[in-house]
TrEMBL record:
Designated name of the protein: 4-oxalomesaconate hydratase
PANTHER family in the record: 2-AMINO-3-CARBOXYLMUCONATE-6-SEMIALDEHYDE DECARBOXYLASE (PTHR21240), AMIDOHYDROLASE-RELATED DOMAIN-CONTAINING PROTEIN-RELATED (PTHR21240:SF30)
Keywords on record: Lyase
Example of a GO MF term: hydrolase activity
Domain Amidohydrolase-related: 40-322
Species per Swiss-Prot/TrEMBL record: Secundilactobacillus silagincola
Signal peptide range in chain numbering: none
UniProt entry tagged with the keyword rRNA processing: no
Cellular component, GO annotation: cytosol
Length: 322
């Protein structure tokens, strides 16, 4: 079975240095430094893919993203990162494709960079990590980014990002457990998924897909809690001014993948709620390495061959025009 994984990450040594020097947003992953070799070394990436039967990765920067650098540095940093990404992809065009980093807090520049990345560099869309300096993307200032993605017919991957210190202090710091557990609660265990679920729900209820009906968004980690609440969001969404229920927009405009959470109950739920034509496959390399399970999980998925093939590679091929 052909396998294309769609939330896989890369970095450059130059960007890591700039991030560590200038970013006001901490990277709270305690293993980040150990992961840098896998993030920056294309040869080890391809060797891993060969060993575990992964035909293609869609790669992007979501760990030390130049997106979060100060406004006077983020535009040039994103351009440099996207140039490096395009160069890496060009060396392995049959194995890798890329999603651009964007200077999101400078929306007009972000829209220009998205257009350059797609039309000049051959990247397949872009990734946006978390909220933007505490701002959700439903603010009108960010609309040029969505308008450009729709015009170019490329998807935007909405990836989690690090919560603000104030959010973390209110929601997750506790004297009942360690600081490390608080970091995990605010991050990979729960918090950043919750925030991205809120992000997506806000975008739907903001009328984003009424304004941009052909826009395509991607949500990892089985949809960041949202698929579990689709019916409830329909019930209470009647207080919105939208002409259609929440589920209409979500199932039409959003694509969902596991991001390495290769768990059977979530697989079955998302398949039921979304259908295979809106399901992608993803390992979250190198933050998660499922190794042999990457292949066996999708091959053993409890639905028909057509749907397995769709999730394994077909949806990605259509969405990213591979």
């Amino acid at each position: 079975m052909k396998i294309i994984t769609t939330e896989e990450h890369f970095d450059t040594n130059k960007n890591v240095k700039e991030f560590n020097e200038f970013s006001k947003v901490p990277n709270n992953n305690p293993f980040q430094e150990k992961l840098n070799k896998d993030l920056t070394d294309a040869d080890s990436r391809i060797a891993y893919m060969d060993k575990y039967g992964i035909d293609m990765q869609i790669i992007s920067d979501a760990g030390n993203s130049p997106q979060v650098l100060p406004d006077d540095k983020t535009v040039d940093a994103c351009k440099a990162q996207n140039d490096s990404l395009a160069e890496t992809v060009s060396q392995h065009p049959d194995r890798l494709a890329g999603l651009a980093a964007l200077p999101v807090n400078v929306p007009d520049e972000a829209a220009k960079e998205l257009e350059r990345a797609v039309t000049k560099l051959g990247l397949k869309g872009a990734i946006i990590s978390g909220t933007i300096n505490g701002q959700f993307l439903d603010q009108a200032k960010f609309d040029p980014i969505f308008a450009t993605a729709e015009k170019l017919d490329v998807p935007l991957y909405l990836h989690p990002g690090v919560m603000t210190d104030d959010q973390k202090a209110i929601l997750f710091d506790s004297s009942a457990y360690s600081d490390m557990m608080a970091n995990m609660m605010a991050g990979a265990a729960w918090g950043w998924h919750m925030e991205q679920g809120v992000q997506m729900a806000r975008l739907v209820f903001s009328g984003l897909f009424e304004k941009h009906p052909n826009l395509k968004l991607i949500s990892g980690h089985w949809g960041e809690f949202v698929p579990m609440f689709i019916e409830r969001l329909d019930v209470f969404g009647r207080f919105s001014e939208l002409p259609h229920p929440f589920s209409y927009y979500y199932r039409k405009n959003v694509y969902v993948g596991p991001s390495g959470m290769l768990t059977a109950p979530q697989l079955q739920m998302v398949h039921t709620e979304m259908g295979a034509d809106h399901m992608l496959y993803s390992e979250d390399y190198p933050y998660v390495k499922m190794e042999d399970k990457v292949k066996s999980f999708i091959e053993d998925a409890p639905f028909n061959d057509k749907d397995r093939e769709m999730m394994a590679h077909g949806t990605a091929e259509k969405l990213f025009k591979l």
